[in-house]
Amino acid sequence: MKQIEVQIMGQSYILASSVEGESLLRQAVAKVDTAMCQIRDAGKIKARDRIAVLAALNIAAQGITPSNPSLATPSAASTHSPEYTLLMARLDNALTSDGQLL
Fold this sequence. Notes:
Helix content: 40-55%
Number of strands: 2
Largest sheet: 2 strands, antiparallel
Low-confidence stretches: 71-78
Shape: flat
Strand order of the largest sheet: 1-2
Number of domains: 1
Radius of gyration: 15 Å
Number of helices: 3
């Protein structure tokens, strides 16, 4: 195991990784960073933890399709279903209206 330093939304993190898994971990970090920065740059949500939750949901939903509800490869869903769009709108509304997820 080795430690690698990565940046997510401008914040440094030290992560443990096997030598063989470092490339995959860096790819995952890049995907999370991109998703979080897109949400932050949209300007509606400022809190880092809320941005992280929405980014995680966005990334997870990219691999879920109505015919296969289990997580698949990220390229499996190239468009968002109406259910996904509605869910994201409801989450966005909930997070911006009172500042609490539940």
